[in-house]
Amino acid sequence: MKKIVFAFLGLCLLSCNKEIKPPNIVLFFVDDLGWQDTSVPFWNETTHFNQRYHTPNMERLTKEGMKFTQAYATSVCSPTRVSLMTGMNAARHRVTNWTLHKDKIQSMESNHGDLDFPMWNVNGVTLDTSVKHAVHATSLPAILKKNGYTTIHIGKAHFGAIGTSAANPLNIGFDVNIAGHAAGAPGSYYGLDNFGNNGDGSPKNIWSVPGLTEFHGKKINLTEALTQKSITILDSVLKLDKPFFLYMSHYTVHTPLMADDRFFQKYLDVGLDTIEAQYASMIEGMDNSLGNLLDYLEKHNLEDKTAILFMSDNGGLSAVARGGDPHTHNKPLSSGKGSVREGGIREPMIVKWPGVVAPGSTSHDYLIIEDFYPTILSIAGITNYETVQHIDGQNFMPILKKTGATLNSRILVWHYPNEWGPSGPGIGATSAIRKGDWKLIYYHLDQRFELFNLESDIGETKNLSKNNPNKLVELANDLTNYLISVDAQMPSYKNTVQKVPFPSKAL
Asked: Which of 383, 410, 437 is the last residue of a domain?
């Protein structure tokens, strides 16, 4: 009997000493996908938008994982993507607007009639300390790579301006880069158009999608081409017997709105106008890509060894380029992309991790994009790491494990001392804070405040600033203290050359 016991213990010791391979991690990142741009309801009721769009694979992922109803990004793309790569809030990293041209603020900023905007970090993120007007940071993929992960970038990058190192994702820690460069929109979604390139494969302009030449001249959508490339890359990576981090970053549904012909006609048939049918078909194309990746993981017995995170970089497009009335495409949320109202910053988010995340679960905890940095590292089992930057993000692993812990006692801050272009609710130079159910927006141009209670007014229809002066003062002070603590930039008034005051000074 003793021999049996000792033999059993010996096997246990061998098993315990055997190195456990960290999970693979897939971050499925969508461009401009709104909170309502899916058949998955992220609210307490199903809306007509949920009935309009067909995203069966998002439904599948939700049934197999955890749905987050209050997940936040920033209002435009590059700030979100830099926060993701650095774990920093946008007010701290100062890539507060979308990047493109080296050492230049955007034309709508330089041509603004009333405000002078600061020289924000227009060059994006960098590992190189010599680059000016950029945030120097230890990137997420760099840490994962250092700890044994193969790091794969597929699709849209938009981390750094043209001519800077971060324009190429290989320079911030990725082992593989497919189709990622400085620009944030594709020249075309169609292989027949060479994805915006010339016939010889050379770029036609700054929007031309690099690489993917094997698909040029073919009847294939960019979303499908990127999906096929991701599977080809994974086939190679699996031979390495290393964990992988796949950053599947689609260009869709960013403009130009171009129909995904695989799904376009069905939306015309149900009565959508051409623009909205194009938009809906692009969403379903994205969802089909998600399904193809889920199928691949199942086929290769990787489903139980892979954590999948689904997120969007900002709210759904609504101010321009859409059919119907502007600022209505994310209802019940107010406004859309470019706005600090909920429609511009609240995102669809899902996490699947077999054995850790309960299938079919829902979290109402609020999170923000910089939280992905420490959480992904935690998923990878990486706890001992050093960064050159301060990490603002919070690890939401306890929420994934349903330990009862919450992050809702903290404040969330958005800071946009910039100009996007279109006008509308919550659009323009703003700072905002959420604390509990309360949200305060401060408009830089006219020093105006909006105070909302999101629990009772998710659509931000009732400005309560006059009725709740104490709460207004409390949140204005909290917002000011945070902005000062990170040395946040503020614009100046052209007529007085005076800086816009911090919120508490405008009361």
From this structure: 410
Q: For position 404, what pLDDT does the model report?
A: 86
Task: Report the pLDDT averaged over residues 1-26.
Answer: 57
Tell me, yes or no, whether 164 lies in a domain.
Answer: yes
Task: Tell me the three state secondary structure of residue 440.
Answer: strand
pLDDT at residue 6 above 90?
A: no
In terms of domains, do 388 and 443 share one? Answer: no
Please give the DSSP secondary-structure letter assigned to residue 257.
Answer: -
DSSP result, 148-217? T-EEEEEE---SB-TTSGGGSGGGGT-SEEES--S-SS-S-SBGGGGGGB-TTS-BSSTTPPPS-GGGTT
- Using alpha carbons only, give the angle 102, 107, 112 rounded to the nearest 5 degrees: 135
Helix (H) or strand (E) holding 132: none
Residue 127: the pLDDT is 87
Length of the chain: 507
Q: List alpha helices for 271-347, DSSP H.
A: 274-299, 342-345
Closest by CA position to 122, among listed 140, 106, 107, 108: 106
Find residue 352's DSSP bridge partners: 308
d(CA 443, CA 423): 13
CATH of the domain at 438: 3.30.1120.10
Q: State whether 122 and 161 are in the same domain.
A: yes
Task: Give me the pLDDT at residue 19, please.
Answer: 62
Mean pLDDT value of segment 451-464: 98
SS (H, E, C) 80-114: HHHHHHHCCCHHHHCCCCCCCCCCCCCHHHHCCCC
The number of domains in the chain is 2
Q: Is residue 15 over pLDDT 90?
A: no
Work out whether strand 150-155 and strand 176-178 pair parallel, antiparallel, or are unpaired: parallel
Residue 50 region by backbone torsions, left for phi larger than 0, else alpha for psi between -120 and 50, else beta: alpha
Range of the domain at 444: 429-506
Integer CA distances (angstroms), 321 to 200, 258, 259, 275, 318, in order: 31, 11, 14, 8, 7
Structure pTM? Answer: 0.95
